[in-house]
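quick one, two chains, predict together pls
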Amino acid sequence: SQTIHQWPATLVQPVGSPLSLECTVEGTSNPNLYWYRQAAGRGLQLLFYSVGIGQISSEVPQNLSASRPQDRQFILSSKKLLLSDSGFYLCAWGGGTGELFFGEGSRLTVL
Amino acid sequence: DAKTTQPNSMESNEEEPVHLPCNHSTISGTDYIHWYRQLPSQGPEYVIHGLTSNVNNRMASLAIAEDRKSSTLILHRATLRDAAVYYCMGGNTPLVFGKGTRLSVIA
């Protein structure tokens, strides 16, 4: 069966520090991969999605970037965090008919 | 993706059926209708999806209007664990989430 893992689960970072969130999927090949963010009390915002290695689509101009160095690995990064980057970050992979399966989430607090 | 409209919140009594509506009047003919729900402090969870015909699974039923401009998610017997934000989306990947409907279940 397919599983998705993301880490770290929780992190507190100072403004201006770098960020790296990692997501891996097991049990499937060539999945569509997604990064969403949910600010406190807000809805989910699609940040990036990828249909293959090295293929990244950015939905919103951000202080963030994404990379897909391997088929089942998706990384969200920032060189310098802003206060507004705080939120709940969710990685997801897509099934064949458009279903999305989400990871456990990474809660980021920027101070 | 189709623009969707859902009520901000709904309330239900435990063990009663719940009908969560969604309008998606701009949906195209090839767009699926997706429903997800999100429990507090968790990622969204897939509930059900369909194209034209009504769909049933172990979690819920999806009733799709004949003109496909609206749909209803049906929880047959609400439990306290069903309290969540329910998102309706019309479209294909990547899915864009709206604000959803916050369902409260009263014991």
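Chain B touches chain A through 21 residues (CB under 8 Å).
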